[in-house]
Amino acid sequence: MKDELYAIQEETLNKIKNAYSLNELQDIKVEVLGKKGSLTGVLRGMGKLSKEERPVVGEIANKVRETISAQIETKSDVLEEKVLEEQLEKETLDVTLPGRPVQAGGPHLLTSIIEDIEDLFIGMGFEIKEGPEVETDYYNFEALNLPKDHPARDMQDTFYLTNELLLRTHTSPVQARTMNQYEGNQPVKMICPGKVYRRDTDDATHSHQFTQIEGLYVDKNVRMSDLKGILDRFAKKMFGQDREIRLRPSFFPFTEPSVEMDISCKVCNGEGCSVCKQSGWIEILGAGMVHPRVLEMAGYDPEVYSGFAFGMGPDRIAMLKYGIDDIRQFYTNDVRFLRQYHHAKGGIL
């Protein structure tokens, strides 16, 4: 049995020496040291040996196993290093090759317009507020002086999810929610940009989804002249220092008095053209003093507090600012369209 053990050792060491892959080395290990391996088979026959021979043969068998295992481990390290070198050689990068140009993206035109408006109003002390797009009927209508039987609800074709849940038709609910949070005992100065939804037929000037920015300022002694001054600054910032504004009487259920704001046409400078329909003015947004009833429902005393609110559409502002004649261009993701106006903003797309 001693001779058989030494013979297995010599044969196995030769195979290990000539192995050229890790798979081949693993096969040798299983063939010799596995449960059905040649060395294991010899050791099973030790029960037939005498008591004197067993320890001697056992010691030799252990040395043979240790020798084979050590050689397999050493060879495995060599082969693994070889595999790694081959892999590194295949994956070598030529750092002298010229780089591939990568074009940087940039913000969408509407995003840029919204950020410009946010920066302007933050500079005037306004906070940015957000609210849910799936809104309750109460905050979307009733808290804004639009009870369930109010005819002005027909002005806004609404996507209802249930009798009480809907896709908000404007961002004004954020104003109502914010005033409720303040519980009528502190000033509110905020704008709330976001998406709104109405059941409308998509065409060049209408969309079932568009963006809106509402503004609200409630405090003691807030006047219409404050509203006019802020809107004048907004118009000059967005459309140029030579823009003039005018306020026309209008109606909104949540403001009283209510106004529409026009800006002087930048195409004809107020002289009249096809863009302004020969009027010299272009309607840009709606505004007004917060209705006392809206203040009361939010917990504010209208004898103490007053305020103004306004609402504008970044889509319309972008169309007027850059001469875009189809609102659907904003939502079709045509990179050719987006790129030209990103360049106008001074970016790369």
UniProtKB/TrEMBL annotation:
Binds 2 magnesium ions per tetramer. This is Phenylalanine--tRNA ligase alpha subunit. Tetramer of two alpha and two beta subunits. The gene is pheS. Its cofactor is Mg(2+). The keyword Metal-binding applies. Belongs to the class-II aminoacyl-tRNA synthetase family. Phe-tRNA synthetase alpha subunit type 1 subfamily. Residues 109-340 form the Aminoacyl-transfer RNA synthetases class-II family profile domain.
